[in-house]
Design a protein that fits this description.
The complex is a heterodimer. Chain A is built from 17 helices and 24 strands. By secondary structure, chain A is an alpha/beta fold. In chain A, strand 9, helix 6 and strand 10 form a beta-alpha-beta unit. Chain B is mostly helical. Classes of the chains: A alpha/beta, B mainly alpha.
């Protein structure tokens, strides 16, 4: 085998952070090479350097044995390197063919040669088994197909080294499976694939070799068949990690959250939640599975009180709070870890202490009358920091000095110290590293065991399946299926998540 | 641990950088100012010496500086409250003059013992300033109309309304558009009236103590009260505050009202202490200079107060040069303007950075998210 890409001694410093520190990476021609690591480990930075989006401060890059001087994006494309980003860069109103050729159109004299364009797109897509309709508008395509268009875009530009940055983050299990098929056919066709992910299962399933990064350094590169998920997790985090949460069977009590025919609009004023009925009981975790953008965000917003309810009712502890302000709901026992941690969950410029008291500063013992009890607040903050193991120099530093995992601990500490009856956790581990995920999961289960009704919303099927007692699947604003977690299979949930329900009534019969 | 201690170092470093940049901006302004003075065949050293002497050189100049700074402290604190709570009250100018004219009215229209009359005039100044800020505040929260536009417009309305009032209903003199004098029971004593050796030949008055009391009070409100916490949080992140259960309407509107109220109180204090009658167009620009002082002072209560005192002393210094050297006043204003300009450029920088924080949390110095593009 020859070496497709060789990166040696790569160093990249951002203000205050060493993102890549003396990183060596060697990718063989024709292999699927996974790069894994916690967030902030420097995976994406490294790939952006290879793709010419960043310039390394030090180090050399060799492509197919030739020293490569990649100073800009165009250099990388000329060398046959293509990248599919986490967020797609497509024009929704253009057709597939137009998107693929945009900026590299074949012309006849003045005009774009549409026929030539369509032909070359069809040729490439049939060669690699990437089925798409070249005339379809991108906005009408499901996410999985849009991703295929992105891959075609790189192939059209003659890429033979493809970088896929967390390609499965937005896909259903079925779409993921299809993507893996595509990746295999790419490699069979002589391409090289670099695959960034933090999902260990995918690493084990698809990759030939895996490079693990931590804190901007490479911890090691292994042949996938010689290693295990547990070993990779340990390399990523630097210690032993529990990949699955231990929990006792649920002891459901009375209904704490009840939704009746809930309808909510999204920011574009479209109906995002189209009539949801749900009950969550004390002492159980109800997981809502679904591909992102199917109304989960709006559902949570409506329960918390951040978004008006168009129709239907929200009851907390049998009290109608459909039109109640946020504080009244919180005082009725609601707590929430919000999906957008850095926008709603925290005020980054404010201190850790200020972040910890927003749900309790106004009532005794934190304040008496109009005055804050600074002493009590300081005690409360210190206690929360200790109990939740938040790593911070003091309670008085701005929140932005903390790492992502520690910030989520701050949110958890604040929300759980209110001892809620209803605890909503929306995408609670998104972007967190393996170690922090373990912590967050344990806290969610603890909250349940202390009698809280937990509503867990997550796009991670694994998370839903390992934490939930009952599972509901949301698709296009409706609950398309509910079942006991022990009866759930990934396949079955995946079909529901893709909106396929007709052939499979009754959920538990859908084992494949 | 190392992560946060680095942050601490960074904070120390930024304080150092900030002091350095203030020194540099003063130096830069003096270089440019000196060039201008050389062009006009003046000795820059002499002029800057006189400027300094006029600001703090004698007992009298100190009192003039205080008198000049007093109204600016009010408007600077008013601006600071608004900025910290995340609203742009550009209307402190109008609120100041509305407070001034209403304070004047109470001052001449009633005959009351001093213990009632003076506090009443000040209270009415506060309330009318707050009332003037009320409409923009409501329009912002209920109708989503930018408070920048509405507060600027209410400044014009205030100017013309006062022009009307001093020309017609409140006019006392056939010659000038001016109100009757304020009753002695509603006046804030000038120092020279208390002791003829104190601040002789100046109009410095005890209103400075009212100003300083407001500074202490607002400082306390920010640090120690629920309301102050709400203001700080909604100013830092309204999404976070809303999620946490803070009532945004209440926090924004109260910040706007208190801001307007303090500006109005400042107007009343200026009339009752210095002018003792309202002469149409007796001065202008208190609101804008206060806003500048708030920006110069990094939008902190103490910083704005210091900046207002600095601004006041520069004005006093300019007067000093005018009297002593016969240099045209306009030239001195250019010098002072340059100092403020260079410092404001520095202050604006801090402000812009703050905006970036508020608008796009998680974009800077986050260790993970910005690297995982």
């Amino acid at each position: 085998m020859t070496t497709a890409v060789e990166m040696k001694g790569i160093r990249k410093v951002f203000p205050g952070v060493v993102a890549n520190d003396n990183v060596d990476l060697s990718v063989e021609q024709g292999e699927i090479h996974a790069i894994v690591g916690e967030n902030g480990a420097g995976k994406t930075t490294l790939m952006n350097i290879l793709y010419g989006l960043y310039r390394a401060d030090a180090g050399t890059i060799t492509v197919r044995g030739q020293p490569a001087h990649i100073t800009k994006n165009a250099d990388a494309i000329r060398l046959g390197i293509g990248m599919v980003h986490q967020s797609f860069k497509l024009v929704p109103s253009f057709t597939v063919a137009e998107n693929i050729t945009l900026g590299a159109e074949r012309r006849n004299l003045i005009f774009v040669d549409r026929n030539a364009v369509r032909q070359s797109v069809q040729q490439i897509s049939s060669r690699f088994g990437l089925k798409v309709d070249p005339d379809a508008r991108v906005r009408d395509l499901p996410v999985g197909v849009q991703q295929r268009v992105e891959i075609l875009k790189t192939l059209y530009r003659n890429a033979d080294i493809l970088i896929l940055d967390e390609p499965t983050a937005v896909l259903t299990p079925q779409e993921t499976r299809e993507l893996f098929g595509v990746i295999r056919s790419l490699v069979a066709g002589g391409k090289t694939v670099i695959f960034i992910t933090h999902k260990l299962r995918e690493v084990m399933e698809i990759s030939d070799r895996v490079t693990v990064m931590r804190d901007g350094k490479v911890v090691g590169t292994k042949h996938t068949k010689d290693t295990s998920a547990v070993e990779i997790a340990r390399m990523m985090v630097g210690r032993e990690v529990l990949l699955r949460v231990k929990k006792a069977p649920a002891k459901p009590g009375q209904v704490v959250l009840r939704l009746e025919g809930l309808k909510v609009r999204d920011d574009r004023n479209l109906m995002a939640v189209r009539g949801v009925d749900l009950e969550v009981r004390a002492g159980e975790i109800l997981g809502i599975a679904g591909v992102e953008g199917n109304g989960q965000r709006e559902l949570v917003d409506a329960v918390v009180g951040l978004r008006p309810v168009v129709a239907g009712h929200v009851y907390i502890n049998e009290k109608d709070v459909t039109a109640a302000p946020v504080r009244e709901r919180r005082e009725s026992g609601l707590a929430c870890v919000p999906e957008d941690r850095y926008v709603r969950g925290l005020a980054l410029p404010a201190t850790v202490e200020e972040n910890l008291i927003v749900n309790c500063y106004f009532k005794p013992p934190m304040s008496g009358g109009a005055l804050l009890n600074l002493g009590t607040i300081a005690e409360h903050a210190k206690e929360a920091i200790t109990t939740f193991g938040v790593r911070t120099v003091s309670k008085d530093v701005p929140a932005y000095t903390l790492s992502g995992g520690n910030l989520q601990k701050v949110v958890l500490a604040r929300e759980l110290s209110a001892e809620p009856d209803l605890f909503i956790a929306a995408q609670p581990t998104r972007g967190l590293d393996v170690g922090s995920i373990e912590f967050v999961h344990q806290r969610i289960v603890d909250a349940r065991d202390q009698g809280a009704a937990v509503l867990l919303v997550s796009a991670e099927l694994e998370e839903i399946m390992s934490l939930s007692d009952r599972i509901a699947v949301i698709y296009e604003g409706r609950i398309v299926g509910k079942l006991e977690a022990r009866e759930a299979t990934e396949e079955g949930l995946g079909l529901w998540m893709a909106g396929i329900t007709d052939e499979h009534k009754g959920g538990h019969k859908i084992d494949v | 641990m190392s992560n946060a201690s680095r942050a601490l170092q960074r904070q120390l470093g930024s304080a150092l950088r900030r002091s350095l940049s203030i020194v540099l901006s003063i130096a830069a302004s003096m270089v440019v100012g000196s060039l201008i003075m050389l062009w006009y065949k003046q000795n820059p050293l002499e002029i800057y010496g006189l400027l300094l002497k006029g600001a703090v050189g004698t007992q009298r100049s100190v009192f003039i500086s205080l008198q000049r700074a007093t109204p600016l402290i009010f408007t600077a604190i008013a601006s600071t409250i608004a900025l910290r709570a995340g609203v742009f009250n550009i209307g402190t100018e109008g609120q100041f003059f509305i407070g001034a004219i209403m304070g004047t009215y109470v001052g001449y229209a009633f005959k009351l013992p001093m213990v009632i009359h003076l506090p009443l005039a000040l209270l009415v100044g506060f309330l009318s300033g707050a009332a003037w800020a009320f409409v923009p505040a409501i329009m912002r929260q209920k109708l989503k109309v930018s408070e920048i536009i509405t507060t600027i417009m209410t400044n014009y309305i205030a100017t013309f309304l006062i022009s009307y009032l001093t020309n017609y209903p409140m006019r006392a003199s056939p010659v000038t558009d001016q109100t009757p004098p304020v009753e002695p029971t509603a006046r804030l004593a000038q120092f020279v009236e208390l002791n003829k050796n104190l601040g002789r030949a100046t109009q410095a008055h005890v209103g400075i103590f009212v100003a300083l009391a407001i500074v202490v009070l607002v400082y306390f409100v920010f640090k120690r009260t629920r309301l102050g916490y709400e203001w700080r949080m909604v100013g830092t992140s309204s999404s976070f505050s809303e999620f946490g259960g803070i009532k945004l309407d209440r926090a924004f509107i109260s910040a706007m009202l208190v801001s307007g109220g303090i500006a109005g109180l400042g107007g009343a204090v200026e009339i009752l202490g210095v002018w003792r009658t309202y002469k149409n167009l007796f001065a202008s620009g208190f609101g804008f200079r206060g806003l500048l002082a708030a920006l110069l002072g990094g939008q902190t209560v103490i910083g704005s107060t210091v900046a207002a005192l600095f601004y006041g002393s520069m004005e006093a210094g300019a007067l000093g040069v005018d009297w002593a050297a016969g240099v045209p006043r306009q030239l001195i204003d250019i010098l002072v303007g340059l100092v403020i300009f260079f410092m404001a450029a520095e202050g604006m920088w801090a402000f812009v950075q703050r905006i970036k924080w508020v608008r796009a949390p998680g974009t800077e110095r986050r260790t993970t998210k910005d690297l995982e593009v």
